[in-house]
Amino acid sequence: MQRLLKSGSGWRIGWQPNATEFKGLVGSDDWALELTEAELDDFCRLLGQLVETIDQMREELMDEEAIACELASNLIWLEAEGYPNTYRLHLIVLTGRRGEGHWSVEAVPELIQAVQSLKVF
Question: Would residue 59 count as lying in a domain?
């Protein structure tokens, strides 16, 4: 399998299985971070858990109630902030070279779809 790069307005994510160290890429229009396979796996897993948690919270919240929900592993910290139907994401890489980035409310829905089809875990 060759490298795969998916992108849209305000987001991008990539996977290069044959790379030596940094097999993943996440970013937006003005920033990008290369990730190890373990970091990318954690990012995808944590994002899925955040989406699931927010979906469950949606039924308990009023439309005007804002949320802030964060999850972390030893490698990645991820936060969703906003409203159950529109939220932005904030990422911090906790290992080695460290890094930080964020996605706008407009970019998040497409990023979530791309992550779900990036690679089979």
Answer: yes
CATH classification at residue 67: 2.30.31.10
* Domain membership flag for residue 92: yes
Encode pLDDT of 49-97 as tens digits. Answer: 999 999 998 888 887 889 999 999 999 999 999 998 899 999 999 998 8
Q: Which residues pair with 90 in a beta bridge?
A: 79, 102
* 3-class DSSP assignment, residue 88: strand
Q: Note whether residue 27 is domain-resident.
A: no
Domains identified in the chain, total number? 1
Please give the C-alpha separations between residue 34 and each of 9, 108, 117, in angstroms, as whole numbers.
19, 19, 19
Residue 22 located in a structural domain: no
Whole-Å CA distances, 101 to 1, 19, 29, 92, 112:
28, 22, 11, 7, 16
Give 6's strand partners.
13
- Rounded to two decimals, what is the model's pTM? 0.92
CA distance 48 to 50: 5
